[in-house]
Amino acid sequence: MTRTIAIVSGKGGVGKTTIVANLGLALASLGKSVILLDADLDMANLELALDMAGRPITMQEVLTGESTIADATYEVATNMKFIPAGVSIEQYRRVDPEKLAKVVAEVSTQADFVLIDCPAGIGRDTMACLSAAKENIIIAMPETMSAVDAFKTKMTGEKMGSETIGLAINQIRKIRGEESERDMQTMLEAPIIARIPYDNDLKISILEKKPLFTRKPNSPAMIEIAKIAAHLTGIEFKPPEKGPGLLQSILSKLPFGRKTEKPNSQATQSAKQTQQATKLAMQAKVIQGNKK
Length: 292
Description:
Elements: E1 3-8, H1 16-29, E2 34-38, H2 46-49, H3 59-63, E3 74-77, E4 80-83, H4 89-93, H5 100-107, E5 113-117, H6 124-132, E6 135-140, H7 144-159, E7 163-172, H8 181-188, E8 192-197, H9 200-208, H10 212-215, H11 220-233, H12 246-249, H13 265-291
Helix pairs in contact: 1-11, 5-6
């Protein structure tokens, strides 16, 4: 059965879109078919996070009845497709967000997971997203105002029939004044499914327009996002080992999680001897050169 999940936030700038992009890739790497749907119709950014800007047909054309959802669906990676929101202001004025539920119902037959990147706040477009999704994940920062906004979003979701299945706290710095995780969990009455630290690698990936999952999968932020993927699929998450990192840490039984065999000890010893001989030869050359 398809899980349709709205990714929401009480305010903008909390990293929601970046998390959607990388969570989608993490789920796809686990063999799940995923469709990312950008429903942020007036401030679309998911196409930038995926480095897929400028697609000719988008959700705007679909919601105005000019194109079909199939025409607006693009392949991103193995197991993952993407439906961009569009950036035309003129088109946006003619969009009917109430048609979103019909679009979601249609794509839900085509994937294991449909992740909806919703607009920030609790406006009409966000309510349309929550109405179309049975579940939601709230992205918040460890700040009092963000926590209050997240609570309002959760209450809106309940009114629209969407269950909050988890809270992901982003950009944790562990500095004085931050809301504690316990206080946020108590306020929202929702489990914390990720504690994403402030991560420079994530900032760099945004500037380079490359998902963190492909740029640096072993980074602290990506590991926490991977925990969400593990949570959604019922997989036990294991801390990454030294080496390949994330792609080996989620499940050892997966093709990308298999441990490589240790090199033959005899071959290793032979390689060390060759390396030592090369080093001695180079030292001898230096000595001869100095004598001249």
